[in-house]
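Let's inspect one such protein example.
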Amino acid sequence: MKVILLDEDKVLNVSDGYARNYLLPKKLAIPATPEAVKQMEKRAEANRQKREAQLKLAQALAEKLSSKEITIKADAGEEGKLFGTVTNSDVAKAIHETFAEEIDKRKVNLNDHIKMIGEYTASVKIHSEVVAHIKIRVEKK
């Protein structure tokens, strides 16, 4: 029996018993009628276009983030050593203030610990295929 798996939008040939007793009652699949196959193809095309649009938006955001430098002001001693560290959360907050873009702090990866005044780089994972490298300048308050 040919069925369409709803999670994956795939047409599979499975045994009649497996389809009738497991896949169809649990609504994991539907029978592969010509109309259902056409609908599946339309859904797959719409999903592909949506993923492409998201990828383009992510690439544009990555280019925007890489084009400028963000500045973080922190308390520091005489030698330039900070009285704490600059964290992922601080970088995400500075990105929001500078670019008006919401970035989850878990998507920010500091390449090294920021404990001194100076210039650093961090990577921000915007999309599964897009990573932006952002320049950070840490200054004394």
Q: What stands out?
A: The chain has three helices and nine strands.
